[in-house]
Amino acid sequence: MVHVPGPKEVNSWMLHPFLGERHFVSCPLQFANPACGADNICYADLQMRMMDMSVGALEKLVVCFRERKTQRNLTVGVGKLGENAYAARLRMTIPHQFSFVISRSCTATQILCELGDPLGFTGRNLRPFVFQLNTAGAFRELDEPVNDQPTTSPKRIRS
User: Taking every annotated instance into account, which residue ranges of this chain make up the domain Integrin alpha second immunoglobulin-like (predicted)?
Assistant: First the structure.
């Protein structure tokens, strides 16, 4: 007789273990440009902050994609504390499982935003870019049943 193994159980917390901070702040950036004064170096001190503003059941500081939200509201704030920034752009690469709405014929996975030429001083007031991402394609149906119970069962004591 041939033994056919049954379905393998998977704990639900292992389905989508993508955890991260809802806020990310970039390091200051500097670059060279001949139009940046006598030293030809722009000290733009570009700042970036990314925030997931999606409403979720979990704590606001945790992004957990197993929430199975079909839309993520991602806000990217860009600003500058130093000299002018020339040809500054914000480029985002969107995973192919996600989608964003521009037009039906668009299949691109990168978004490129011109920030202004030059991008002037913004101080601590970052310019917001808001992206609504459809995350329905990030989840797939499992072939294996899901088990939310602990892996060890309690022992019964006979009396």
Answer: 36-118
